[in-house]
Amino acid sequence: MESLISNMQWVIHFYDINCQYSKNLQRWINSNPLISIPQEIHIQPGIGIWHVHGHHSECFT
Predict the structure, then answer these.
(1) Against a cut of 0.70, is the pTM above it?
(2) pLDDT tens, 7-16?
(3) Rounded to the nearest 5°, which phi and psi values hold at 35?
(4) Cα 52 to Cα 19, 21, 31, distances in angstroms
(5) How many other CB atoms sit within 10 Å of the CB of residue 19?
(6) Which residues on adjacent β-strands are paired with residue 10?
(7) Are 43 and 37 in contact (CB under 8 A)?
(8) Could you give the CA distance from residue 58 to residue 23 in angstroms, rounded to a whole number?
(9) What is the pLDDT of residues 42-61, one digit of tens each?
(10) Where are the alpha helices (DSSP H) in 8-48?
(11) Which of 2, 19, 30, 36 is the most buried (most CB within 10 A)?
């Protein structure tokens, strides 16, 4: 487990509706035979500051 964490790369992805988009991202990728995300990559969704105030408090993190 330790070697996986040390080799993990983080990608921060910002999108104004990311709280909804990111819920299905992995499913969409898994259903497409032409693309994949390596296991060492962790995608952290984010919402831009201009849009975050219109979201629920659950979306803030």
Answers:
(1) no
(2) 788 888 777 7
(3) -130, 160
(4) 10, 14, 29
(5) 19
(6) 42
(7) yes
(8) 13
(9) 888 877 766 666 666 665 55
(10) 18-30
(11) 19
